[in-house]
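Sample entry follows:

_____
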Amino acid sequence: MDYYRYLDMIWKLSNWYFSKDALPYWCIFVLDCLIVLGADVLVYALNNGTLSFLQNFVQLTGAFCFYLLFYVVSFRMFHTYSGVIRYSSFIDLQRIGFAMITGLLMIVGVRYLLNEDCWLMAVGMRDIGIAALLAVLMMWSVRVFVKYLYDSTFNRRRGKRVFIYGVKAGGVGLAKSIRNQVDSRYVVSGFVSDMQDMQGRFLMGKRVYPNDEHLVEKMEDFGVHTLLVSPLKNEAIRNNPEMVERLMKAGIRIYMIPAAQEWDGKSDLDHRQLK
């Protein structure tokens, strides 16, 4: 019973958060700073013992806050807090990594140039380095988890589930366009392929299904009533009236780029071009 109550609380919390505007920059900034401090405390306590940490709590707090200043400067340099967590991308994760490396290098420089161990409690570079790595992983995890929660709950509930016909550049381009679109009206649930070697595999985390007589059944299992056609598959579906008839009889809508607007295979592909 408690398990379902906790799930309900998480659902309500995520619903509240995702229905609001993005968190203010200072909230993300404070969260990252707390993660860095938490990583410092955890690593020191594990490597030196909890008793040692408690006995030197005040001195260690001063040292960790001093080191945090360098990470704050690097956060400012790389603007790690300026992104919206629910829309985090690989570029945002890169910025965090570069910011933490920069902050760590500044700490190393200060330690060896200013000999700060004379007026701060000495903390081993091994502890500082491991803590920086742990902090990076924790910040990445927070952003990935929030993005996953948004995609799998709030955004998916509002978006229309679709299959994409085609697994090469065109199909992948459509899927990326949908994922990168803020508040997209579509959610990719699977891919359809004519190629035997691709069937049963996974592309961008979604299964690739064969284009056969069971396709409609698979789409209905996922509650999918829309098929987006890759521009590279326009000719294939036009020359396959049996496939079109099966889909239309099942009430499945087919979206594709009109012949007058064929994709050139090079420019950015936008799913909103489909009709």
Residues 144 and 170 are 26 Å apart (CA to CA). The beta strands are 160-165, 186-193, 202-203, 206-210, 226-229, 253-255. Confidence is low (pLDDT under 50) at residues 259-266. Residues 2-155 form one domain.
